[in-house]
Specification:
Helices cover 35% and strands 21% of the residues. It has 613 residues and is α+β, with helices and mostly antiparallel strands. It binds adenosine-5'-diphosphate and magnesium ion. Adenosine-5'-diphosphate binds next to helix 2 and helix 4.
């Protein structure tokens, strides 16, 4: 037998590493843009074609590389950023593992053009699947341009598992936004299939947030500022009234590195506790500055998770800082959204005053006297069982009156029976209760339908069919509505235009980041066209990252959620009947697309049991 253990070739090792570091085009963009930032660039340009599947390129004006560095940087564990273990605890750069370029080069066709300011000529290196296939002097600008073509060309499994172009583009935009937000002092631009999606000049952080998310954000931001010894905090939280139901605009940067952290997220959620309804999530853009000694960013290859030494202290300081910010900016508690109407106290009109409730005391009451109805210990005001009977004994005891009572009862009984007779075979008309449930008789008992859930299911199937057959009824608007979107959202809307058309939107591109809505799906109204589009985008984006469901399904779900009938809407008998009919014609009538029940039944047997029969 020969020995079988051997060391993997660099080629294979790099491909394996690539699997961890580069999951999709967006990961490559993240690594390349971070390298540009680490190289001290003041301007970074990102170019993508076909969601990065055909091309992704990052051009910077940073320090550039020498001829030998340009070759060396492609080696595994090649980095200029750390030398020794101790350096790991003092990291100020985005990268340090020396894996990114080697990984990308192992699974794509890469071209590097780079030149340092002090050199007359630059260097061009070409690599295909980890092999250097070209290396020559070239004329180029100061800085570095790295283009990556045919990503995953030699890893078909990866390539086949990539999502649709809009989804992958969305991931790229997410990564781009994170770095762009972290470095407002660097100019960034992003070109997607030749369209300039972002054009961000060097600016203040507030301007950067506005540049990334759209002009409307300017009035939504509340500054947060705190400097403590453990942590310095700066940035913004969104005003409570703009909190959304879906995740998306939550950003923590630790020493300018975007991170995800559920614990700190909770601190902010906590600070907003009484200001927003429970299912809403506040937006935030928060920088935490810490001594690098107190954090460990080495726990995940993509470095989006970090460990803090002082996480409890940081939690407390962040919570206090956000509370203070909200207080200082006079963000008064908003009214509760979903309050029981019975608890609503109407405001007092002019000249009205509050009536003080009167307290009546029975001076003859002696809690220690058994016969006066007390329990004997004077502590418990609840009368004993005997006394209950005493209290509720019918006031009139004489015979005549009790006879009358009996005949009253008989009368009622008779009427009820007659009523039941009449309804023995009723035409089953549904009724609505509490403006949210529909009750309808069925052979074996009755069904209760949740109007929102049911409506969501049938809208969902309707839109899914429309997307499949590319036809849905459009409601042409009389007035067109111009909507300014954030560059990211604009890109998404344009990429999804065919689908939006199929769903009944008529949307036209109108200059940079602006669209005109000329028609909306027939179930909606003109006046909420803009809100509808925004809600769709929000839900759609949320689903991309969380559920990873397919495009059509995802769109149909989003639109169904937005346009389904909500609780509170009064329905006519005709509407309810139509709804029930359409529901039972659905391919899956019993659940919403998210798996919540639409219908529950109560059988006659169950009712009988409840009444002891
Ligand atoms: P890391 O960033 O962890 O050091 P990378 O594989 O991303 O590892 O990069 C390897 C090295 O290549 C970097 O340390 C840096 O010296 C050099 N490098 C990469 N990209 C650039 C760039 N855009 N400009 C200048 N140098 C770069
Ligand atoms: Mg790097």
């Amino acid at each position: 037998m020969t020995d079988i253990v051997h060391v993997l070739s660099d080629q294979v090792a790099n491909q394996i590493a690539a699997g961890e570091v580069i999951q999709r085009p967006a990961s490559a963009i993240k690594e390349l843009v971070e390298n540009a930032v680490d190289a001290g660039a003041t301007s970074v340009k990102v170019i993508i074609k076909d969601a990065g599947k055909t091309l992704l390129q990052v051009i910077d004006n940073g320090c550039g590389m020498s001829k030998s560095d340009a070759r060396m940087c492609l080696e595994r564990h090649a980095t200029s950023k750390i030398y020794k273990t101790e350096d790991l605890f003092n990291i100020r750069t985005m990268g340090f593992r020396g894996e990114a370029l080697a990984s990308i080069a192992a699974i794509a066709h890469v071209e590097i053009k780079t030149k340092r300011q002090e050199d007359d000529l630059g260097t061009q290196v070409n690599i295909e699947g980890g092999e250097i296939v070209g290396d020559q002097a070239c004329g180029c600008n100061d800085g570095t341009s790295i283009s990556v073509k045919n990503l995953f060309f030699n890893v078909p499994a990866r390539r086949n598992f990539l999502k649709s172009d809009p989804v992958e583009t969305k991931h790229i935009i997410d990564e781009f936004q994170r770095v762009a937000l972290a470095y407002p002092n660097i100019a960034f631009s992003l070109f997607n299939n030749e369209n300039e999606v972002f054009h961000l000049m060097k600016s203040s952080f507030r301007q950067r947030v506005v540049g990334v998310f759209g002009r409307k954000y300017n009035q939504k931001l509340v500054p947060v500022e705190e400097s403590a010894q453990v942590v310095g905090i700066s940035g913004f939280v969104g005003k409570p009234e703009f909190a959304k139901k879906t995740r998306g605009e939550q950003f923590f940067f630790v020493n300018k590195r975007f991170i995800k952290n559920g614990y700190l997220h909770h601190a902010i959620q906590n600070a907003f506790q009484d200001l927003i309804s429970r299912e809403n999530i506040p937006s935030y853009f928060i920088f935490l500055e810490l001594d690098p000694q107190g954090i460990d960013i080495n726990i995940h290859p993509t470095k989006t998770e970090v460990k803090f030494e002082n996480d409890r202290a940081i939690y407390a300081i962040l919570l206090a800082a956000v509370k203070k910010a909200l207080g200082e900016h006079n963000i008064a508690p908003l009214l509760d959204f979903e309050r029981e109407p019975a608890f609503d106290v109407p405001p007092l009109g002019k000249g009205e005053s509050v009536e003080i409730p009167e307290v009546r005391i029975d001076p003859s009451y002696n809690p220690f006297d058994q016969s006066s109805g007390g329990t004997g210990n004077g502590m418990n005001s609840k009368p004993s069982t005997e006394n209950w009977e005493e209290l509720y004994r019918p006031a009139a005891e004489d015979k005549r009156e009790s006879e009358n009572l009996e005949s009253d009862l008989n009368q009622t009984q008779f009427e009820l029976e007659a009523d039941l007779d009449e309804q023995a075979n009723p035409p089953s008309k549904p009724i609505q209760i509490h403006r949210r449930y529909i009750i309808s008789q069925i052979k074996s008992g009755l069904i209760v339908i949740d109007q929102q859930n049911a409506s969501e299911r049938l809208h969902y199937e309707r839109y899914l069919n429309a997307l499949k057959n590319s036809k849905v009824s459009v409601q042409k608007s009389l007035f067109s509505k111009t909507v300014e979107l954030s560059p990211g959202d604009f890109g998404l809307v344009m990429e999804m235009k065919d689908e939006f058309d199929a769903l009944g939107f008529e949307i036209r591109e109108f200059g940079k980041s602006t669209v005109i809505i000329e028609g909306v799906p027939a179930d909606s109204t003109d006046k909420d066209a803009e809100a509808l589009l925004e809600r769709m985008l929000e839900l759609y984006k949320n689903n991309i990252s969380d559920l990873k469901i397919e495009k059509h399904d995802n769109l149909a779900r989003s639109l169904a959620k937005s346009l389904c009938i909500k609780p509170g809407r009064i329905l006519s008998v005709e509407e309810m009947t139509a709804m029930i009919d359409e529901l039972f014609a659905c391919s899956m009538p019993y659940y919403t697309p998210n798996g919540n029940p639409t219908i529950t039944t109560l059988t006659i047997d169950e009712l009988n049991t409840k009444f002891g029969k």
